[in-house]
## 1
Amino acid sequence: MCTQPFLELTLELEPPLLVFKPSLEPDDKSSLMALVDGLICDVFSISTLIPRLDKNCEHCHYQVEMEEQADLIEMCEDLRQRVHSAAEEALQARLVYQKYTYLWTDDRKEVLRQFLHYGCVIAADEVHRLASISGTLMVGDETLTERPPTIGRFREQVDSYERVCNEVLNLETETRIHGWLRLDTRLAKASLLNIAFQWSFMLKEYLLNHVSSSLNDLEVFIDSTELGISQHTEPDDLEGLLKVMGHLRSVRERKISMDDVFQSLKDTLEMLQTYGQEMLQAIHQQLEVLPGRWVEVQHQAGLMRQHLAPLQAEQVAILRKKCNSCEMQQLHFRQRFQQKAPFRYDCVEPYNWLDLLNQEMVSLEETLKTLIESSVLFEVGMPDGQNLELCRYEACLLKDLWDIINMVRSSLAAWFSSPWKKQDLEALENMCRHFANELRNLDKETRAWDAFLGLQQEIKTTLAALSVLSELQSPAIRDHHWLQLTQATGTPFSVNQDTTLEALLGLRLHEREDLVWTIVDRAGKEMAIEKVLHDLEITWGAITFQFDQHSHSDVPLLHYDEELIETLEDNQLGRRIMHIMMCAIHRNNVKLWDPSANTRRLWMLRMQRCLS
């Protein structure tokens, strides 16, 4: 039995992993198994140092025979199995450290943030959803709301980290495996202990900074308040009076909560001292002196409030008059706003009007803000700013509405100024539908305004006109069709390659939609007749007639051909269709093909009888 270990493994923390050195991975060339295999090879290579006496032997040393010894092969395999078994036990020993994985994988800043918001520490894998709007956190099926931690919750959390530190301190630094392998965990333990102390110190440091910053803020507040309420105020010094009233209001607001603040800071200091945290002497002095100074400040504020009572009553009367005057100014401005704001679609330079009205609103808003602040200080009813708020609200809506109006106008102007035959009217229709959707997304308050209704009507009119004009882009439409349109509408007009879309829209053809559909339908029929006539010309222009000589005379007779008869019958069907669809412009051309096919067939049969 070995009294001293033969090999050593070291466990180290290399975040985010706990690693062994040498490695226990089977594919690693520097692993423990590779090290043992190297030792075995070195033992066998010793046999190469002993030369053979027989010079005629194939090998000059005994290594080959040693490697082929069955008992040695069995011993090597047994040694590898022992190494494998020891590696399994080392992996099991590592599990003791892996249960603290959260200490080096979790973000301390994020954990502190959650603790300060929700009063508890939540594992990262337990958080399902964070609703940032409502400030709720979903942990499993439980909903957590924002609830800052109390000093008791801080104590519980610090105690939990302290327990972890004690657990890590008590971990073994060395483990013997099978007597011959030593597992050294000192480095892993030291790293883990350092991280555990950092978690514990994180909360202590926050509390230390909180106590120090809170006391400093209180001292600054008390200093400024003492200085502010000690200032002498003249009866006509309104600015000085407002400053003093502001200090008195701050004292009144903090009066209820200040005693709880001092007690909370004392409890926090006592808790930190139980964990051995040393405080600066200045912090202890502040905590002893500031409560007495706060009591004195309250007393001085009460005396100053009595001294300023006559001045305050006078200013209250003046302030009420200003509040009434401000409300009247808002009412008059509301009336001007309704008259001058660009609510109409035919408004010229709407942005200039909005800028002028905005300047007046800014001035009124500043006045209203000043009066509200003064009303709070003197405890007077605040002026009503409902009319001004309504004007501001409608001004923002008007700005959004006119942005869309200008976007629509500029976009359509670019399309309307281009030759209409080169336009992709389908793309233009899609763009108009997009504008209509943008218009519908505006606030419902805008739908009663003339500017909204005007834009809505313009988009509808454009869409209706485009649906008609898209049909007139058909290749069946010829010059005489445009002539028919101009005669029907009573508007002289000529269409060429340079005709713009705006010019066609001026004809307002969407108001004569039935007429347009009639002409487009007629043009389609004419194109169909043209195609049939063209096919007849090609077919009969390529047919060659054959003649036979009469048996009793030299008179040539037309040769009877079944294919010719079939072609003639097919063309007869096409001719009947042309008669049904026949338009005035193609009437003469259709009649050229009108000779009776039945007469031709009888004539051909008679010729056949004669030949027979």
Note: The first strand starts at residue 7 and ends at 14.
## 2
Amino acid sequence: MGAKINASIVVIAIYSLYCGYISTARWSAIKRRSLRAKCAKESGDLETLQNSSPEDQFAVLVVGGRFANPFPEYRAQGILEFIVWKIFEVIRWNPRAGVPRDRVLLSELLPLFRPDFEVLFDTGNVVVAGDSDVKTESNPDLSPSGNASPIGLTSSVTSAVYYSSDTGSSTNIQLDSSTMADSWTPISQRYVASARIPTGSQDAHSLSDTSSNTTSSGLHSPITDEPARTIVTSTGLPPRDERLTITWIGQSCIFIQCHGINFLTDPLFCARIINSYIGPKRLRPSPCQLEHLPRIDFVLVSHDHPDHLEEDAVRKIGNSATWIVPLGLRRYLARKGIYRVAELKWWDKIPLPGKERDGWEIACTPSMHWSGRHLFDTNKTLWCSFLILHNSRPVIFHAGDTGYSSELFQGISQVYGTGCEVALVPCGAYSPRWHLQPQHVEPAESVQIMVDLGAKRLIGVHWATFILSDEHYLEPKQKLEQEAVAAGLQDAVWAADFGRTVVVPYRSSDEVGSGSDDDAVFRLPDATVSGVGRLRALEGRHTLIW
């Protein structure tokens, strides 16, 4: 017994010395960088200022062979603090964060929305050919996500599983407005009629029976390759090349479309975080599965935590998309047989390949967090946020997971500029603050990040997907709205709904600012949604335009 006690003391002593070394080395690096930045500002020398920019002050920091946070606000948390927090979780009075056991009540308080697949697959475009017929033009990029054999569909598949926002139950429904559950927004059969795999694909997998060429609205819509002369949008939305679409799947998993380029962030569709049997369970089912989405072009992974990188999604996507990841994650993906990987460090920037993506870039930006998928790989890989840029202007910011550092986010806007169209920022999983403040922002800090970035809009994500912290499961949304009102930003801040598609008009022209009052052609009748005045609902649909 005495030998075991002595061994335990030795292990604790060695671990304490290691933690002390890491903390001392980290603070030493932070002070050197801060001093260099201060001296540069005082000197006023242009060359010195350039060499002490945010890119220098917040460059990747490695201590003891592991990545470390170069931010003074960060506090390293050892395994002992983690154990204490877990014990506290077990014995606390309210382990479910106020989540009702009544599933019907939960579905009312935390509704699911069906993503607007007509918009996502871009099948609402009609071609006016100068005669009496109106024909559809299929999206040439239309193919399901996943590996080359698209999602295991056969040509006879005409249905998919969706979840009712009224009952919370799953239903196998036909992709036809006549059989939609009442809780779903009807979508035009143009989505069904014009859905097809691009010419040259091995299998012409159909998403529905296309024997009928008449839409629910009475318009004829045969599949055709006839060249378009005039394109209008029957959905009332800007055309694909003049809009951004954002659909929140849950946690930090978001399907983003920029001018027809499809991004998926931090892929996560599973019911439980760790595997099918253990780990925290979703409060509500995923609003869709990976297989239901359009083809993914790029996957942006902010870090390797299981709630931001699902193994099953990794397997399904495989090499059908290009993965853009922080340092260290290439090795993990290589073990899964994935080689289409761009591995970046903070402040790296890469152009997206292809003539149709000319001017589009991805910047890997810092965040204040940590990494690790199990006990012994903590901080072996880097963590990050991302900026999607167009013609060197920030368009979408994906924060991933982060704590708050004013110098960090002001530094990002200093390097890449202000005017970001949409900032996707976490707003949940922040309590207790004594433990989670260094790694997760609270709603007030989420709004401040928007201000620091100079972003036009903020969408709050990473809330109410799982119970991973102590705050009431609805508190992040409520507090985010309150903080937005207090800052006078109630028209520019919104906590995302599961599955609801949001459309943001965006024109690349420098003459017209997207979402500005100059975009009168895209104005819709005012309809206040969740207290966000400028977020407008399309008539007869769940889809929002901002």
Note: Residues 125-232, 510-533 have pLDDT under 50 and may be disordered.
## 3
Amino acid sequence: MRGVDLRWQANKERLNMCTSGSASSCEECLMIHPKCAWCSKEVFGSSRSVTSRCDLRVNLLQNGCGGEIESPASSAWVLRSLPLSSKGSSTAGMDVIQMAPQEVAVDLRPGDQTTFRLQVRQVEDYPVDLYYLMDLSLSMKDDLENIRSLGTALAEEMRKLTSNFRLGFGSFVDKDISPFSYTAPRYQTNPCTGYKLFPNCVPSFGFRHLLPLTDRVDSFNEEVRKQRVSRNRDAPEGGFDAVLQAAVCKEKIGWRKDALHLLVLTTDDVPHIALDGKLGGLVQPHDGQCHLSDANEYTASDQMDYPSLALLGEKLAENNINLIFAVTKNHYMLYKNFTALIPGTTVEILHGDSKNIIQLIINAYSSIRSKVELSVWDQPEDLNLFFTATCQDGLSYPNQRKCEGLKIGDTASFDVSVEAWSCPSKHTEHTFTLRPVGFRDSLRVVVTYNCTCGCSTRLEPDSTRCSGNGTYVCGLCECNPSYLGTKCECQEGENQSIYQNLCREAEGKPLCSGRGECSCNQCSCFESEFGKIYGPFCECDNFSCARNKGILCSGHGECHCGECKCHAGYIGDNCNCSTDISTCRAKDGQICSDRGHCTCGQCQCTEPGAFGETCEKCPTCPDACSTKRECVECLLVHARKSDNQTCHHLCKDEVITWVDSIVSDEQEAVLCFYKTPKDCVMMFTYAELPSGKSNLTVLREPGLEPTLQKAHLHTHCGFYLQQIQQVL
């Protein structure tokens, strides 16, 4: 009971961070911790002691500051929220809404989180724009033959999923410069010259936009039939140049505002990436802009390097494009790794002849539509965001901003908690955006900061409350230059001797405890490299407390004015003593096996010969044999079967050795014997092993058959009595 009282007292007196922060203004108080509040009441606290105006709200109320407490809290409210749509084929002229709300405002006090909820829905029958980007290098000639009528078959399948489907087409090879392509004069018109397996092909090119997105699938088929393969020099292709142009040239490609954007890249080799262009003398990084000519040819192929993965990811996300890698099996893992670096990207295995391309696209479409993942745009540096997803199973998943396994029409919810950890300059407003990957919809979040106190707007310059020499604000006087004191009643240069005694803790003690300067009856404490000096007479600090192994208050308390205020569960001058007795409880439930006392969470064994963490080991104790007897008897009853559940429990810390005779040659072994119900004497020895277990050497039972006479049993019992006498 006394231990509980000590823990309660330690918890009660624990130093709170609001009063220890020495805030000199309301704004400084708010910055210490979100639980801190400021009392702006003019007359506050006792005249005999200094009462901190910055404290926990409950303490301020107890000290008489009712109705004049400044403690703003973070908040969030919805500015715009249109309802979620149920279908993509809505009434003409109406936007399809897949995310709600669309605009939220948050007002943040540093350290104080506020939370709002958003919802995302993959609506039914949502329009789809699919741009087919094909590698036309020589190795893809078989694939080109197999997709001559792709448009018709693909449109038929996609219209089972959406009533509004459009298809576009583009192709790529690689940069038409050395060493990526054949540049010698004889290859200019036919890079396949001299290649016996396929002697004729078209000149190499970077990227060509061939067909804008259209619902006329016959145009797609017609354009595909016109295409001829080309030939580049090295194995990697220029596919990423083509992907970037297809993403950023929105008007030429024809991406619609209200549609799911799918960009399918089909290739049978690895891509060139940023810095590869240096091999051809291209040192200018890609600018991420559209560079298509009037003939829809990529014009910057020989001017800029290949785009980086980061740039690709940025531009694809900006334009809400889901990239689908359709690649051959031997390059699957490389492109799979790319998907981890480019959000909203999937990868599927393409057969060597592209015959599975339709099923591949259907699978990728289903995968994209079965998940929702939030992305954050333009997050301010002084904000922390925390997400909790609630998916279709109704369960909450903290620290997750992604839901998978959704069906078309399902709604995923996300709780977003926003926290500021600093205060920018006054009247600062930030914004950031939350957007599901691959969606047009977004949520705009407007951020303002609640870092000022309401009382700060009610200034009283040259206030009579401040002797006419200062500005009264939030219960305090801010003195004009050359004036000092709580009421600005003193002026620098005046005779200070009449005030000096008010800076002594007691008569005869040094001014401000020798750790500050006395000015107008007030102590201004010196700064210290060891910590903070404070108090009306600079008599306190937060570093002159008892330590344990060099750690102030053992790390289990706060140093307050030379005394450790221990956290709950610890006592002592340096808080090194735990009040927890669970660590002293032995396996039998007794504290220290009833052979000692629990002090600071550790057993102090008082029984001679007792040792162990809970004093559980004691070969010389009177009850040493009796504690082991239950194990021995159990084994004898069950014919020495240690796998019996009861015996296993009783003997779990014992190592059993069965012998025909006892030889007492171990000095540390204790001889134990007891009389059995059949008037025999059973013997065993007991010794502790370094491993912490006990070694029991047990005498075997007489090897008599059940039909033997009682006289024979007595003979064997007499034999054991003789052994006992010999050992003793």
Note: DSSP finds 16 helices and 40 strands in the chain.
